[in-house]
Design goal:
Layout (H helix, E strand, L loop, with lengths): L1 H5 L18 H10 L3 H23 L2 H18 L9 H20 L26 H10 L3 H9 L3 H12 L4 H8 L3 H23 L1
C-alpha cells in the first residue's frame, strides 16, 4: 500500500501518545558530548542524521540545500549542547534547531514585505481543539485507493508549509503529538488541528484523483 512505503504511520493516524523513554541512548550521548566527548557527538550525528536531513529536505525542497542545512544544524547543536536537558527526549530538541535554521533560510528567500510568520494560525480566529478526528478512517481509505506512492507524495508537497511539516514528523519520523509540539514550539492541540486539516486536504485531493 502507498502508506506503508511513504508514511509508515498513516494507518495509525489517531494513535495516542507513543511510549517514549526520555533516558535514551541519545540523551546519554548528548550528556557526554556536552562534557566535551566528540566521539559521543559523532555517534549522535550517526543516529540522527536521517531525521534531520529528512526534515530539512521536506522544508526546503532542495537536496543540496537540505544537506547544507543539516550540517549547519549539527554545528549549531554542538554549540548549544549545554542547554540540552538530558531528562527530555533528544530528537525534538535537535529537530527544533534544524527547523529554526530552515525557517530562517526560507525567510531569506522572500522579499521583506512578504515575510510573515510561517507558524501563524489562520486569520479567522479559529482555535485548535484537542480532540481526535472521527473521519480519519475515510482518509485511510482514500490513501489505500491511491495507485502509486508518487500520488500521495505529490499531494503532500502541495500542502501548506506547516502542514507538510507535521505530516512529515508524524508519519515519517513517527514522532508523538507531544514531541512534534516540542519540535515546532506550538501547543499540542495545534499539532492535532494541523494534522486534521492536512488529512482533509489530502483526502479531498486523492478522492478527486480516484473519481
Amino acid at each position: 500500500m502507498v502508506d506503508a512505503v511513504v508514511m509508515p504511520g498513516w494507518a495509525a493516524l489517531m494513535e495516542g501518545e507513543r511510549n517514549v523513554n526520555p533516558v535514551s541512548e541519545e540523551a546519554t550521548l548528548a550528556r557526554a558530548a556536552a562534557a566535551g566527548d566528540r566521539r559521543a557527538f559523532t555517534r549522535l550525528v550517526e543516529l540522527t542524521k536521517r531525521p534531520v536531513h529528512g526534515l530539512c529536505l521536506r522544508l526546503l525542497g532542495d537536496a543540496e540545500e537540505a544537506r547544507d542545512a543539516a550540517q549547519e544544524s549539527f554545528v549549531r547543536a554542538w554549540a548549544a549542547l549545554q542547554s540540552y536537558d538530558p531528562g527530555q527526549p533528544f530528537a525534538p530538541w535537535l529537530l527544533r534547531i534544524a527547523r529554526n535554521h530552515c525557517i530562517d533560510l526560507i525567510r531569506r528567500r522572500l522579499p521583506a514585505a512578504q515575510r510573515v510568520e510561517l507558524d501563524a494560525e489562520r486569520g479567522d480566529g479559529e482555535r485548535p481543539v484537542e480532540i481526535p478526528d472521527p473521519t480519519a478512517g475515510r482518509g485511510d481509505e482514500a490513501v489505500e485507493r491511491a495507485q502509486t506512492t508518487s500520488a500521495l507524495e505529490e499531494a503532500v508537497t502541495r500542502l501548506p508549509e506547516r502542514y507538510r511539516e507535521v505530516v512529515h514528523l508524524f508519519h515519517v519520523e513517527q514522532m508523538s503529538y507531544k514531541e512534534i509540539a516540542a519540535t515546532m514550539e506550538i501547543p499540542m492541540g495545534t499539532v492535532m488541528t494541523w494534522l486534521h486539516r492536512a488529512r482533509a486536504q489530502l483526502r479531498t485531493e486523492l478522492q478527486g484523483r480516484d473519481a
